[in-house]
Amino acid sequence: MADLKDETTVDNTEVNDTIEYTVEEANNKAIDPSLEGIQLFYEKNKKMITYVGGGLVVLIAAVLYYKMMYLPEKENEASNEIFWAQNYFEVDSFNIALKGGVTVMSPDGQKQIMGFEQIADEYSMTKSGSLANYCAGICYLRTGKFEQAIEFLQKYSGDDEMIAPIAVGAIGDANMELNKVDEAIKFYLKAAEKSNNNFTTPFYLKKAGFAYEQKSNFSEALALYERIQKEYGKSNEGKEIERDIAKVKALGNL
Prior knowledge:
By secondary structure, the protein is mostly helical.
C-alpha cells in the first residue's frame, strides 16, 4: 500500500508540474527577437489590435450606411417637404410657409405639409434642412419679426454663391431694423466678402456705405462707394455710384 501511495504522489506531482509548465509557457511564449517595428508591435499587442480592428470595421460600416443610405433618404424626404413650403413662400403666405399645417394633394394622396421651422428641425443634417433655416429667416424678416429672423438666418450653413451672402446680408437688414447700425455694418461687409461677384458684393458694399451715412461717418461711406466705382463699375450700383460719392463728399466736407 505504501508503495502505491508513493507512486500516486509522484505521478500527481509530475502532472501538476506539467500543467504549470504548460500554462507558464503559453502565457510567456517568447517573441522572436529578430522582429522589429510594426511586426514587433503586433506580436506584443495581438489581442488589443483584434478588438480595435473589429471596432473600426463596425465604425466604418456605420459611417458608410449613414452617408450612402440614411442621409440620401432623409435628403429626399426633406426636399419633398420643402417643395410645398416654398410654394406658399412664393405667394407671400409666410405664416403657412413657416408653420405648415395645411392639407395638400400629393402624388401619394392627401398630406399635411410641414413648414420651414419643422423641416429645419427634423432634417437639420440635410441641405434642404439648412435651406429651410434661411427661408424661415426671410419669412420672419418680411413679417417684421427681426429677432426671430436673425435666429434662423444664423443657422443657415449653406455655401451657395448667391444664397450664402444674401443670408448674411439679411442679418444685416434685421439689425438695421432693430437700430443696431454697427451690427448691421458688420454683417453687410461680411456679406460683401462672402462671395465675390458683380451682384451681391457691390450691393452689400453700398448697404454698408448707407449704414455709415446714418452714423454720419461719411469718410467710411466714401471709401466703400469709391471701391464700388473702381472694382464694380459695371454693376447696377457702380453705374449710379457717382451720385452717392458726390453726396457724401458734400455732407462730410471731404
